[in-house]
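SAMPLE LOG
Freezer: B-3
Tube label: C17
Construct: single chain, 768 aa
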Amino acid sequence: MLRKNALAAPIGAVLLCAAGVHAADAPVRDGADDLPRITVTAIGSAFRFDVPATVSVIDRQKMDRHLVVDIRDLVKYEPGVSAVGTAGRWGLDSFNIRGLDGNRVAILTDGVAASSSFGFSTTGMRAGRSFVDPDTLKSVEIVRGPASALDPSDALGGTVRYVTKDPADYLRNGKDVYVSVKERYGSADRSLGTSLTLAGGTPTNGIVFVADHREAHAPNNKGDVDSADYLRTRPDPLTQDTTSVLAKYVHVARSGREDRVTADLYRNDVDTNVLSALGQAGTTRLSSDIAKDRATRTRLSVGQRYANIDLGIADRLEWDAWWQKSETESTTRTLANVPSRGATYDRLYLSDLDERLFGGKLTLYKTVDGGVQQRIAYGVEASRTTPTGQLGGEGRDVRTGIVSSSAPYMPESYPLRFFPRNDTDRYAVFAQDEIALLDGRLRIVPGVRWDRYTFKPDRDDPYFDGSFVQGGLGEVRSSRFSPKLGVTYAMNDAVEVYAQYAQGFRPPLYNELAVAWGTPRLYGIVPNPSLKPETSKGIEIGVRGNGELGYFSASAYYNRYRDFIFGGYTLDRSQWPQWALNQNLLIVMQAVNFPKATIKGVEASAGLTLGALNDALQGWRIEGNLAAAKGDKQVYGASGWSPLNSVDPLTAVLGISYDARSWGAELIGKGVRRKSRLDSATAFRAPGYATLDLYAHWRPTEALEFSAGFTNLTDRKYWDWGSLHGGVLANVGSTDGGGVDDAQVRNAQIDRLTMPGRAVAVSARYTF
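STRUCTURE (predicted):
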């Protein structure tokens, strides 16, 4: 173990740079990409050691103590990671990791990929990727960049792995039944939630059942105009009901074979009175806009783990198979006045987006110890994704009572298909080796993944009969090898350095290749079947330490992207198709490949255990972190470089905590620098801010536990960049290319997008 004074210097240096990460006990991973041998434990997320990349883990205890109810709460203090999406009707979408978000971040629930983000038009189809209830999770692992050959190569930003609860998390020998009930309340959105956990059996033959229900309203932001029109700065009135159910059976045989069966259900209903859309002057003026949205996900998974087998080519084997259906349904009813016609239409829009996925993965492991120890993992993965969707509806002339699904009763003739029914097949073969040298102090981890992608549209789909479709869309195939190489070197028992080189590969999705749409006198979208896959090359170097005094971690990275897919490029009028000219559109957009993009940054984290300095300070800890990044892109058809809007501004976190046997408290300050680098001179630049949060927990008895959180104690007015930058949910009609959320592009009052002020959240859990 490193001497105290030797370890204190690097810890202090990192803390002075704006320090550490909140870290908690790291759970043992269920999978086996790379088995952790050294983990640093503290109060928040735990960083994994002996891995040639930055990988952090958020455990169940930390989620409970920070009263996490959504993905924004989950990564609030995580360096280099944020949540993307708004708090209004469309909700949170996905994660931003080191400047990339949306479909460039892989989200896996027990190894099963989340559906793709998709969205455009305030009355069209929207679908995010936040289809998980944090209360069903036992841990969340966040990998920065395409670090592992065992993960999908299209995770250019990184991978978020959700691991759901197991029976063994609650059952012990001699305790064959577990029951707990948790109640919670949050003042920020006046939410009430109830969670029930049941487990029965034994750790080796048990079942767990988790049911959660939450009701919430619009978040209480810092706006003060409560008008029923577009000048409104208060949130639009809404109600939200979220229900989730997890059921899992796990059996471990005497041979060590483990059998798993999982059913996972999620449903989110949001009813919104979109007052902020009313009264805006234009070709159509709305006097009413009522929306009902429902997002559901159903997942069924089966799998086995063979821990002790003798196949010659493997001594351990894992396989999983899954089926998943994600669906987003929206009903929007508007009362639209068209001054040019002297008519008012009662319009009903019905949209449905359905994405079905089935697939499987086989991974084999082999340990070779012939002087040089090697841990080899290799396997295959295959899946098929089938999305379908359409927009239907009808309009009624209020004066005459005539009902029609065609113009002018509706903006276009309905039903409409935005993209064709298609199958997207993915195949992958991967291999990774971990080679231990110098008595295990030097570890070299080479890996490679070969991915094959095929987009197969159904030529008989009604999409191809639409007036917006151009020729050239057919089967699209692409494949690529993505090599990776990582090295870790343990300088001693407490400090190690690491470096990694990794490549990534993301082929274009159906919603980038094939979407076609137009609204007369507004905007249109042109498909681009010639899109190339985007690729990445990245390096990361870092140093980290873990000792009696605490821990530290510091890293620097540089990532370069080619053929960067940008979904909101505004075409010059000379490039418009004839149908767009006929409709007299204002803007026509298309997904294009930007030649290059780069993101570079640094991250630092540290924690200091004060009890190691003085016995009177037992239980006290100071932690913090810092993340800074810069991104640029070369725009298609233009020279020079411009800022990449998706990169988060500089963020620093510093906290102090005290943990006793039955209670504890944590005070956390977070500072964010002004978002000054944007590619548009007119876009809103969110000012910098600092917030202060206080958390406390108390366990008066073994069966009863209370938690409380007091957030934004200073009642600061601020904007979170993740709620302003909409990722793939950004409005495609944006004049600056979709880099800013549609709410402000469409003349919204910027105060409507402020975050909640001072708020309190409390929870109580009783275990029977």
